[in-house]
Protein backbone atom coordinates (compact mmCIF):
# COMPACT_ATOMS: atom_id res chain seq x y z
CA UNK A 1 0.00 0.00 0.00
CA UNK A 2 1.22 3.47 -0.92
CA UNK A 3 -0.07 6.80 0.36
CA UNK A 4 0.80 9.56 -2.08
CA UNK A 5 0.41 13.12 -0.80
CA UNK A 6 0.24 16.30 -2.85
CA UNK A 7 2.89 18.84 -1.87
CA UNK A 8 3.02 22.44 -3.03
CA UNK A 9 5.98 23.48 -0.87
CA UNK A 10 9.11 22.13 0.79
CA UNK A 11 7.32 22.19 4.15
CA UNK A 12 4.44 20.12 2.76
CA UNK A 13 6.85 17.48 1.48
CA UNK A 14 8.82 17.26 4.73
CA UNK A 15 5.66 17.00 6.84
CA UNK A 16 4.24 14.34 4.54
CA UNK A 17 7.38 12.20 4.72
CA UNK A 18 7.81 12.56 8.48
CA UNK A 19 4.25 11.39 9.03
CA UNK A 20 4.22 8.31 6.86
CA UNK A 21 3.56 9.29 3.24
CA UNK A 22 5.23 6.95 0.80
CA UNK A 23 5.43 9.28 -2.18
CA UNK A 24 5.04 12.95 -3.04
CA UNK A 25 3.24 14.47 -6.00
CA UNK A 26 4.83 17.91 -6.34
CA UNK A 27 2.72 20.59 -7.99
CA UNK A 28 1.93 24.27 -8.07
CA UNK A 29 -1.55 25.70 -8.60
CA UNK A 30 -3.45 23.22 -6.47
CA UNK A 31 -6.76 25.02 -7.07
CA UNK A 32 -6.21 24.69 -10.81
CA UNK A 33 -5.71 20.95 -10.61
CA UNK A 34 -1.94 21.24 -10.56
CA UNK A 35 0.66 22.69 -12.92
CA UNK A 36 4.42 22.33 -13.20
CA UNK A 37 6.25 23.73 -10.14
CA UNK A 38 9.32 25.92 -10.37
CA UNK A 39 12.73 24.37 -10.86
CA UNK A 40 13.86 25.84 -7.54
CA UNK A 41 11.00 24.15 -5.72
CA UNK A 42 11.70 20.82 -7.40
CA UNK A 43 15.37 21.00 -6.45
CA UNK A 44 14.65 21.91 -2.81
CA UNK A 45 12.01 19.23 -2.33
CA UNK A 46 14.16 16.49 -3.87
CA UNK A 47 17.01 17.52 -1.57
CA UNK A 48 14.78 17.63 1.52
CA UNK A 49 13.06 14.22 1.44
CA UNK A 50 14.11 10.64 0.81
CA UNK A 51 10.77 9.29 -0.47
CA UNK A 52 10.05 9.41 -4.22
CA UNK A 53 9.03 12.78 -5.63
CA UNK A 54 6.88 12.76 -8.77
CA UNK A 55 6.65 16.14 -10.47
CA UNK A 56 3.64 17.44 -12.38
CA UNK A 57 4.37 18.18 -16.03
CA UNK A 58 1.51 20.40 -17.09
CA UNK A 59 2.36 23.77 -18.67
CA UNK A 60 -1.04 25.36 -18.07
CA UNK A 61 -4.45 24.57 -16.64
CA UNK A 62 -6.49 25.62 -19.69
CA UNK A 63 -7.07 22.04 -20.82
CA UNK A 64 -5.21 18.78 -21.39
CA UNK A 65 -4.75 19.62 -25.07
CA UNK A 66 -1.32 20.98 -25.95
CA UNK A 67 0.16 22.71 -28.99
CA UNK A 68 3.69 22.58 -30.36
CA UNK A 69 4.93 25.29 -27.99
CA UNK A 70 3.42 23.51 -25.01
CA UNK A 71 5.17 20.34 -26.13
CA UNK A 72 8.57 22.05 -26.21
CA UNK A 73 7.92 23.45 -22.74
CA UNK A 74 6.99 20.00 -21.41
CA UNK A 75 10.05 18.39 -22.97
CA UNK A 76 12.30 21.00 -21.36
CA UNK A 77 10.57 20.46 -18.03
CA UNK A 78 11.04 16.68 -18.24
CA UNK A 79 14.75 17.06 -18.98
CA UNK A 80 15.10 19.40 -16.02
CA UNK A 81 13.20 17.06 -13.69
CA UNK A 82 15.62 14.28 -14.66
CA UNK A 83 18.61 16.52 -14.00
CA UNK A 84 17.26 17.57 -10.60
CA UNK A 85 16.91 13.95 -9.46
CA UNK A 86 13.16 13.47 -9.03
CA UNK A 87 11.80 9.94 -9.19
CA UNK A 88 9.11 10.51 -11.76
CA UNK A 89 6.66 12.73 -13.56
CA UNK A 90 2.89 13.07 -13.61
CA UNK A 91 1.46 14.02 -16.98
CA UNK A 92 -1.29 13.42 -19.52
CA UNK A 93 -2.48 14.73 -22.85
CA UNK A 94 -5.68 14.51 -24.85
CA UNK A 95 -6.92 15.36 -28.31
CA UNK A 96 -9.86 17.77 -28.73
CA UNK A 97 -11.98 14.61 -29.14
CA UNK A 98 -11.08 13.60 -25.56
CA UNK A 99 -8.88 10.68 -26.54
CA UNK A 100 -5.26 10.12 -25.55
CA UNK A 101 -2.98 12.19 -27.76
CA UNK A 102 -0.65 9.29 -28.48
CA UNK A 103 1.54 11.28 -30.87
CA UNK A 104 2.34 13.89 -28.23
CA UNK A 105 2.51 11.31 -25.43
CA UNK A 106 5.13 9.28 -27.30
CA UNK A 107 7.29 12.38 -27.74
CA UNK A 108 7.10 13.02 -24.00
CA UNK A 109 7.87 9.41 -23.11
CA UNK A 110 10.92 9.44 -25.36
CA UNK A 111 12.49 11.94 -22.95
CA UNK A 112 11.69 10.33 -19.60
CA UNK A 113 14.65 7.96 -19.39
CA UNK A 114 14.59 6.27 -15.98
CA UNK A 115 11.72 8.37 -14.64
CA UNK A 116 8.54 6.65 -13.48
CA UNK A 117 5.46 8.01 -15.25
CA UNK A 118 1.99 8.53 -13.84
CA UNK A 119 -0.74 9.38 -16.36
CA UNK A 120 -2.93 11.79 -14.44
CA UNK A 121 -6.65 12.52 -14.26
CA UNK A 122 -6.82 13.54 -17.89
CA UNK A 123 -8.05 9.95 -18.18
CA UNK A 124 -11.21 10.99 -16.35
CA UNK A 125 -12.13 13.31 -19.22
CA UNK A 126 -12.06 10.51 -21.78
CA UNK A 127 -15.23 8.74 -22.91
CA UNK A 128 -13.84 5.23 -22.42
CA UNK A 129 -11.82 4.66 -19.26
CA UNK A 130 -11.25 0.98 -19.93
CA UNK A 131 -10.19 1.52 -23.53
CA UNK A 132 -7.88 4.34 -22.48
CA UNK A 133 -6.28 2.12 -19.85
CA UNK A 134 -5.54 -0.48 -22.52
CA UNK A 135 -3.86 2.20 -24.63
CA UNK A 136 -1.73 3.43 -21.73
CA UNK A 137 -0.68 -0.10 -20.82
CA UNK A 138 1.10 -0.31 -24.18
CA UNK A 139 3.77 2.08 -22.91
CA UNK A 140 6.26 0.51 -20.47
CA UNK A 141 7.26 3.92 -19.11
CA UNK A 142 3.77 4.42 -17.63
CA UNK A 143 3.66 2.73 -14.23
CA UNK A 144 0.34 4.00 -12.91
CA UNK A 145 -2.80 5.93 -13.71
CA UNK A 146 -4.25 8.52 -11.33
CA UNK A 147 -8.01 8.39 -11.63
CA UNK A 148 -11.25 9.20 -9.88
CA UNK A 149 -13.06 6.63 -12.00
CA UNK A 150 -14.44 9.32 -14.28
CA UNK A 151 -16.35 11.03 -11.46
CA UNK A 152 -15.59 14.34 -9.69
CA UNK A 153 -15.04 12.32 -6.50
CA UNK A 154 -13.57 8.84 -6.45
CA UNK A 155 -15.92 8.10 -3.54
CA UNK A 156 -18.71 7.95 -6.11
CA UNK A 157 -16.74 5.63 -8.38
CA UNK A 158 -16.12 2.51 -6.33
CA UNK A 159 -17.63 0.27 -9.02
CA UNK A 160 -15.63 1.97 -11.75
CA UNK A 161 -12.38 1.53 -9.79
CA UNK A 162 -13.18 -2.14 -9.27
CA UNK A 163 -13.76 -2.58 -13.00
CA UNK A 164 -10.52 -0.83 -13.92
CA UNK A 165 -8.56 -3.04 -11.55
CA UNK A 166 -10.17 -6.17 -12.99
CA UNK A 167 -9.13 -5.45 -16.57
CA UNK A 168 -6.59 -7.90 -17.98
CA UNK A 169 -3.92 -5.66 -19.46
CA UNK A 170 -0.88 -6.45 -21.58
CA UNK A 171 1.30 -5.60 -18.56
CA UNK A 172 0.77 -4.49 -14.96
CA UNK A 173 -0.25 -0.87 -14.43
CA UNK A 174 -1.28 0.43 -11.00
CA UNK A 175 -4.52 2.28 -10.34
CA UNK A 176 -3.78 5.27 -8.12
CA UNK A 177 -7.14 6.35 -6.73
CA UNK A 178 -7.64 9.99 -5.88
CA UNK A 179 -9.92 13.04 -5.70
CA UNK A 180 -12.28 13.37 -2.76
CA UNK A 181 -10.61 10.95 -0.36
CA UNK A 182 -10.51 12.03 3.25
CA UNK A 183 -9.69 10.42 6.56
CA UNK A 184 -13.30 9.47 7.24
CA UNK A 185 -13.71 7.64 3.93
CA UNK A 186 -10.25 6.19 3.41
CA UNK A 187 -10.53 2.82 5.17
CA UNK A 188 -13.91 1.91 3.70
CA UNK A 189 -12.80 2.97 0.22
CA UNK A 190 -9.68 0.80 0.34
CA UNK A 191 -11.71 -2.10 1.74
CA UNK A 192 -14.37 -1.78 -0.97
CA UNK A 193 -12.01 -1.40 -3.92
CA UNK A 194 -8.83 -3.22 -2.96
CA UNK A 195 -6.63 -0.46 -4.40
CA UNK A 196 -2.94 -0.58 -3.52
CA UNK A 197 -2.23 3.13 -4.05
CA UNK A 198 -4.18 6.16 -2.82
CA UNK A 199 -3.64 9.84 -3.53
CA UNK A 200 -4.61 12.60 -1.08
CA UNK A 201 -4.46 16.36 -1.32
CA UNK A 202 -7.13 18.50 0.33
CA UNK A 203 -8.07 15.57 2.56
CA UNK A 204 -4.78 15.87 4.47
CA UNK A 205 -4.66 19.66 4.65
CA UNK A 206 -5.65 21.80 7.60
CA UNK A 207 -9.40 22.24 7.70
CA UNK A 208 -9.61 20.33 4.43
CA UNK A 209 -8.78 23.59 2.65
CA UNK A 210 -6.83 23.17 -0.59
CA UNK A 211 -4.68 26.24 -0.05
CA UNK A 212 -3.79 25.53 3.56
CA UNK A 213 -0.75 23.56 4.72
CA UNK A 214 -0.46 19.80 4.96
CA UNK A 215 -1.62 18.73 8.42
CA UNK A 216 0.82 16.32 10.11
CA UNK A 217 -1.91 14.71 12.21
CA UNK A 218 -4.10 14.00 9.18
CA UNK A 219 -1.19 12.56 7.22
CA UNK A 220 -0.20 10.35 10.15
CA UNK A 221 -3.77 9.13 10.58
CA UNK A 222 -4.09 8.42 6.84
CA UNK A 223 -0.73 6.65 6.81
CA UNK A 224 -1.83 4.49 9.72
CA UNK A 225 -4.97 3.49 7.84
CA UNK A 226 -2.94 2.58 4.77
CA UNK A 227 -0.41 0.68 6.86
CA UNK A 228 -3.22 -1.34 8.36
CA UNK A 229 -4.03 -2.72 4.90
CA UNK A 230 -0.38 -3.57 4.27
CA UNK A 231 -0.21 -6.15 7.05
From TrEMBL:
InterPro entries: CutC-like, CutC-like_dom_sf
Signal peptide: none
Keywords: Cytoplasm
Subcellular location: Cytoplasm
GO cellular component: cytoplasm
MF (Gene Ontology): copper ion binding
UniProt xrefs under Pfam families: CutC
Similarity comment: family membership: Belongs to the CutC family.
HAMAP family: CutC
Name used for this protein in its record: PF03932 family protein CutC
Gene: cutC
Amino acid sequence: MILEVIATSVADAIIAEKNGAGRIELISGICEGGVTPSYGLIEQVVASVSIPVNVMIRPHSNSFCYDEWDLETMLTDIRTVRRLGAAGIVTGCLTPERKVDTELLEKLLAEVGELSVTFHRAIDETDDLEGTLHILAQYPQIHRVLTSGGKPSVLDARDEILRLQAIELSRPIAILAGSGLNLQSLASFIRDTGVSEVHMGTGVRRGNHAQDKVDPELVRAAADVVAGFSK
